[in-house]
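Thread title: Can someone regenerate the structure for this chain?

I was given the following input by a collaborator and told the matching structure tokens would be attached. They weren't. Posting the sequence so someone can regenerate them.
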Amino acid sequence: MSHLIELARQVRATTIEFVEDVPNDWLLWAPPGTSNHMMWHAGHSLWVQDCLCIERLSGRSELPDGWSDRFGMNCQPVADTRDWPDRGELLKLLRNQLDQLVSLFNEHADRLTHIGENIDGQWDLTRGVIHGLHDEARHQGEMYLLIKLRRGPIES
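Best answer:
Regenerated them for you:
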């Protein structure tokens, strides 16, 4: 279980670092021709972990009402959304969810010891947890690219 906890800590630490370190106006910036900004990528990571892990282990969502509408797989278009959380709320949710993940991993270690077969087209619990962490890491790549693009070209 310590391996899964360490993976969750490392992945989430980078998401938190990106959200903490950028100027406020960068959180909702997306380059022309794209739609997803850093806020969406971080919020989506919270949603994925909630769906694939928190809800499956605890039986309930830990996210605020309407989160799925803004950050879920079938969310409303980002350009049409006006009600975004502020940086402080997002960071609090990211940190609290990590604590919850670690607690649930420890509490349900026996349920996370092996990777089984897909059931009814759904991943088993362990596959879902690993997929959620992998998905968050992929969204960090998008966040990193947004940071690089927002900085603009390096002048020599």
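The helical segments are 2-21, 38-58, 67-71, 87-107, 125-151.
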